[in-house]
UniProtKB/TrEMBL annotation:
Record key words, sorted: RNA-binding
Region (Disordered): 237-256
Pfam families: RRM_1
Any one GO MF annotation of this record: RNA binding
Keyword RNA-binding: yes
Keyword RNA-binding carried by entry: yes
Classification via InterPro entries: Nucleotide-bd_a/b_plait_sf, RBD_domain_sf, RRM_dom
Residue intervals of the RRM domain: 4-78
Official protein name in the record: RRM domain-containing protein
Superkingdom of the organism of origin: Eukaryota
Length: 256
């Protein structure tokens, strides 16, 4: 049977049971909490969830800070909760009125849990997002954010529009090459095109979905960045060519 409980070590003496409940409520529905002293500087807390997914999601949060200390979270399949443990829900009610709550917990994705906690201001470990993504991939889960972005992309064809936009920039560069021969106006146009593409890339990276590791957004930004680089390179080459031509016309020969 999969473990539905976790052990939380190095809990600050200043942390209350309410602090523990608030922190771990993001992972899943909590059945009960058992807290007691460990050392002169810390406590230990055991949390049992309604299902094993809640416990495994909670494990991904190891390294997070609760109150003022970084905690260690691991599965605790053998812990026996005493009768004095605080009970928040009755596990025997699963087959009755609380079935909806259990289903709600079951659809929680680790990536979404981490995103929600970060948005609430919780201080999580530096590798928490990576662990959450690995957990979701292992269980073939897709975060709500990723699903929404994929659905949006399918509806409005955003990836296609980004590709079309970068192609249009390249075409404009060629057209201006032929018409203006890199005059000052051409230089300004090149710079504006490069800045527009760069701004588009920045806007994509600021989008909240990037935080959840949505692959298509990363790919789209890659395409935008590549085109921005190409536009910039063409600008430099054309300006250099114009300056070289001007120097030759005036009889100036650079000393190597």
């Amino acid at each position: 049977m999969a473990a539905s409980a976790v052990k939380v070590s190095n809990v600050s003496l200043g942390a209350t049971e309410q602090d523990i409940k608030e922190f771990f409520s993001f992972s899943g529905e909590i059945e009960c909490i058992d807290m007691h002293s460990d050392t002169e500087r810390s406590q230990i807390a055991y949390i049992r969830f309604k299902d094993s997914q809640g416990a495994e999601t909670a494990k991904c949060l190891s390294g997070a800070t609760i109150v003022d200390q970084s905690v260690i979270i691991e599965l605790a399949p053998d812990h026996q909760f005493p009768v004095t443990a605080t009970v928040y829900s009755n596990p025997n009610e699963n087959s009755n009125g609380s079935g909806g709550a259990e289903s709600s917990s079951a659809i929680q994705k680790a990536e979404d849990v981490v995103s929600s906690m970060l948005a609430k201001g919780f201080c999580l470990g530096k590798d928490t997002v990576k662990k959450a993504k690995a957990f979701d991939e292992k269980h073939q889960l897709t975060s709500t954010a990723s699903s929404k972005v994929a659905s949006l992309d399918q509806k409005i064809g955003l990836s296609g529009k980004i590709s079309a936009g970068t192609t249009a920039v390249n075409e404009k560069v060629k057209e201006m090459d032929e018409k203006l021969k890199v005059s000052e106006a051409a230089k300004a146009a090149f710079t504006a095109a490069e800045q527009s593409v760069s701004n588009a890339g920045s806007a994509i990276m600021k989008n909240r979905y990037v935080l959840t590791g949505t692959s298509w957004v990363t790919g789209a930004f890659g395409r935008v960045t590549k085109v921005a680089g190409e536009v910039g390179q063409k600008t430099k080459e054309k300006v250099a060519a114009e300056e070289e031509g001007a120097n030759k016309a005036s009889g100036y020969v650079p000393i190597s």
